[in-house]
Amino acid sequence: MAAAAISAIMTMTAMIMEIFFFHGMIPSFV
C-alpha cells in the first residue's frame, strides 16, 4: 500500500515537472 502511494506520488510529480518544463522552456525558445 505504501509502495503504491509512493509510486503514485512519483508519477504525479514527474507529470507536474514535465508540464512546468515544457511550458517554461518552449516559450523561452519561441
UniProtKB/TrEMBL annotation:
The chain crosses the membrane at residues 6-26. Keywords: Membrane, Transmembrane, Transmembrane helix. This is Uncharacterized protein. It comes from Roseburia hominis (strain DSM 16839 / JCM 17582 / NCIMB 14029 / A2-183). The lineage of its organism: Bacteria, Bacillati, Bacillota, Clostridia, Lachnospirales.
